[in-house]
Input
Amino acid sequence: MQLSVRHVTTYSYAQPAWGLIQLLRATPASFTGQNVLDWRIDVDCDARLREGRDGYGNITHMLYVDKPVTRLSVSVTGRVLTEDRAGVVQGLPQDLPPQVFCRATPLTEAGPAIEALARTVEAGPDPALGRLHHLNSRLYEAMRFDTTATGADTTAEQAAAAGHGVCQDFAHMFIAAARLLSIPARYISGHLFRRDGAHVQEASHAWAEAWVGELGWVAFDPANGICADDAYVRVACGLDYQGAAPVAGARSGGGAEHLAVEVAVSQTQQQAQFQAQS
Output
């Protein structure tokens, strides 16, 4: 599937802000099943961008704004060609040993609610893969998707105890339970093409990857109860949200801040026309 992505993050400040530094994890890499055709980052003010890679292998850009501003908008656009590989992730340009992703973090620390969730996961004929599929389905069926009840600092344990959350919380719960079962798991940020026609979204998407023996990394989306397919654009990974967040930064001054995010993911017009003619 050929997908077009547009991700715009806009900051508005009550007073002029200066010395802005932003870390962007907003550029996807090409690997087996995901080919980045073109990608660019635009900023609506005088700024400097420096490309690099972080410790997880994510493509990063450091954004520096030296002059006072009352508004900053970062627009990320591009096209990606994807294919359905039943969640199997292979051919990443850089990666770490799976054992790195066994370590719990404050956002993914297991407590009584996660422990109870892990106990309900049955192994099936394939111990690791069976448990992960069951966990994915269990979270999708038992937890309620709710955009109003949690925040960026909500932990997996808090979301599991409350019984609801957003895609970030579903990913954290999956990761926490998988690690409790001694299965390496990590947080993935990226974009999702909505086949229901909701192409404009309020945020990027999040899911998880878990290590399954000879298969390697397999991507699971517990918020939708499926493995990632050709509707997913993988951008960054980390131990949790903080290691894969699209934007993080600091500034001086500025007073109160207002943040607006808009994401649009659609099939490119060329592919849509081809499907209509088929």
Notes: Helices lie at 112-119, 127-142, 156-162, 167-180, 241-244, 269-277. The chain has six helices and 16 strands.
